[in-house]
Amino acid sequence: MKKAALLSITFLGLTACSQGVTTMTDRSQSPCGDKPNCVSTQDTREEYNLTPFTLTESASIDAIEQVALDLPGAKTAVKDGNYLRIECHI
Predict the structure, then answer these.
(1) What SS3 state is found at 87?
(2) Which one, of 89, 65, 68, lies nearest residue 79 by Cα?
(3) pTM of the model
(4) DSSP letters along 18-52, please?
(5) Which of 17, 23, 28, 90 is a good FRET partner for 10, with 20 to 30 A between their CA atoms?
(6) Taking the domains of the chain in order of start, what are their residue ranges?
């Protein structure tokens, strides 16, 4: 009984402290949302649109990430397959 109670208290404590993950699953309609300092090759609105990059066959998502992380305040927000989102907080 004590083990079950201790396990329950531990589980509830860890669950209550969890920040959770809040990610948007489909950002294709408005990748920048209403953030005024955002640009995206996928956003169709003129003020947020950036021309897509032409990459060579030797370019990799890892190499792109390393170059982007040289920007001031840059950090990797999401890296999943062929999707990479770098955020710069200055």
Answers:
(1) strand
(2) 65
(3) 0.52
(4) -------S--SS-TTTT-TT--BSS--STTTB-PP
(5) 23
(6) 23-88
The pLDDT averaged over each successive group of 10 residues in the chain (90 residues) is 52 49 60 84 88 86 93 93 86
Collect all residues with Cβ–Cβ distance below 8 Å to 51 and sequence separation of at least 6: 41
Distance CA 24, CA 8 (A): 31
What is the distance of C-alpha 27 from the center of its chain?
Answer: 11
8/39 Cα distance (integer angstroms): 46
Q: Determine the Cα–Cα distance for residues 19 and 72; give it in Å rounded to an integer.
A: 27
Tokens of 58: 């030797």
User: What's phi and psi for 66, nearest 5 deg?
Assistant: -65, -40
State the maximum Cα–Cα separation within the chain, in Å, rounded to a whole number.
Answer: 63
